[in-house]
Amino acid sequence: MKIKEMKQLGDWISKRDAMEFLNYKTTQMNQFLKDHASSLRVSRIGQRLFITLSSLIKVIELNELK
What we know:
Structural class: alpha+beta
CATH class: Mainly Alpha
Low-confidence stretches: none
Order of helices and strands: EEHHEEH
CATH topology: Arc Repressor Mutant, subunit A
Oligomer: single chain
CATH architecture: Orthogonal Bundle
Strand order of the largest sheet: 1-2-4-3
């Protein structure tokens, strides 16, 4: 398995890095953003979208199977 280092600025990662981590295509990621809009912290600068890593981890933890 190839491991890629994520580029991040503080707690922020790009949408593209989040897509790579989740192994999602554009349509899947857009639906993920809609489904979890209340839990994800998102910032848009121009056409670039950034997500906080901590909010992404929170969404994953909230959907943990027990």
